[in-house]
Amino acid sequence: MAYEEVLFPVCFTGKKKYFGVGHEDIVNFKLKNLFMKGIETVKQGKSQLLKFIREKIMREAMDINNTRSIHDIVEDTLREARNKEWDFNDFIVMGTWKPKKKNLCNNRFMERMREKNERIPDPGERFSYVVVKGPRLRNEKGRLIPYRVGDYMEYAGIAKEKNMEIDINYYLDTTVGMCARFINEDDRYQPPPSHKIMQLKYSDEKEKQTNKYSQDEATKWLKKYIKGLQ
């Protein structure tokens, strides 16, 4: 780590992935921006809820007065997000209509909008939408259709006008991969000594498979945790 990257506190979330409070020239624990390396950014157009969860977890983990583990912080943040009184605009997501691209969610959404005679954006045009609650759909034989996000996407303006109920759990589920990256170093997500991964001799391959295993296990736990939030 180069001198200009002296960090304290610091949190490592994987190989060459870390964030922390940087100190240059003088000690400063009240920085506006955290130093990050290898940490996935929240892409433009994503919901404010996703940005809130990412920012809150990282800042609370780096608080000099923090006494909680990052696992506890992730749990508390998701619970707070589940029960928080959000503004409708915090759920708005921006998409771009690309009819030739195999985007199953957008393609299904636009198919529904055509059936309703709603306006379809021009190719390359951006549109805003939210994901709302709704009953599970069935096919012509009465069998449940697997959940498809495109079946529950609605234009933001229409959803707001009709006061449709936002599916908060969908939005929390979109944070699972990110949150799993914060907690996958926890002992509970590591492969047991008897696992075949632990028998590997080559360190690079062992590290790669261990990282995938722990990320998958953390993801499973988070999905179950979010589902149980009320």
Automatic annotation (TrEMBL):
- Return the protein name: DNA-directed DNA polymerase
Keywords, alphabetical: DNA-directed DNA polymerase, Nucleotidyltransferase, Transferase
What does the entry give for GO biological process? DNA-templated DNA replication
Q: What is its EC number?
A: 2.7.7.7
Q: Which residues form the DNA-directed DNA polymerase family B multifunctional domain?
A: 3-182
Q: Which organism is it from?
A: Rhizophagus irregularis
Gene Ontology MF, one: DNA binding
Output the lineage of the source organism: Eukaryota, Fungi, Fungi incertae sedis, Mucoromycota, Glomeromycotina
